[in-house]
User: Fold Possible sterol desaturase from Agarivorans albus MKT 106.
Amino acid sequence: MQTLEFWRLGIFVGLLALFMLLEIAWPRHKRSIPRSQRWPANLGLILVNGLCLKLLFPITTLALASWTQHQQWGLFNQLNLSAAIAVPLCVILLDLAIYWQHRLFHSLPWLWRIHRMHHVDPDYDVSLGLRFHPIEIALSMLIKLGLITLLGVPVLAVFLFEVILNGMAMFNHSNLKLPLKLDAFLRKLLVTPDMHRVHHSQRYHEHNANYGFNLAVWDRLFHSYVAQPQDGHSQLKFGLSHWPNAKDNRQLKGLLSLPFRSPSK
Assistant:
């Protein structure tokens, strides 16, 4: 189990460095705010969220998957499917659950207060894919632990899902300019940066669309897909129009307190 945790961390760090370099080499848009004003808080949330998970949850998703498999708990442990079927199917089901979790955080006012920290950022780059409030991370962890227990998700499926989810979150939040033909080809299956960038538009109907992180099919299937921003990518405004671009909203203390503040404070 420790080996898988090591590989998961190593892949995360490697992909983060890769997308940081790629978006410098091929940026999609000009930055409105220097990295020095956004990255310390956005990247600092990695440490805060990691510490919160350690303190709040005595068991990791990988450890729980191993334990449920040993106890033969959950649907897939009862079905006795081959790993070739069970693993990809569980990865797809977990991705579907994350899609609906994301929609739920946009639909319920008290969850939106927590999630809006992710949307207040007035710029868009790979660091935004890591900018989630600790409360949201904890709630997401509870959902994942519940699904792993109910479904009996294999350890390999949990490992692959979390690696893919982290990698895709960084990929589709990166300020990376893909050739239009490549973007059109990729988004037939996967969520691309241009596709997810629409989700961070200030326009209400756009930031309530394109909820997927991994597979692009869910937004099409459940009618939440918007192909392109109304104003075009060159004129796309990020953040929330009713929320001021105050300095404390780019600092770690301000981000942590944001769910408990109103736009005027």
Residues 2-260 form one domain. The radius of gyration is 18 Å.
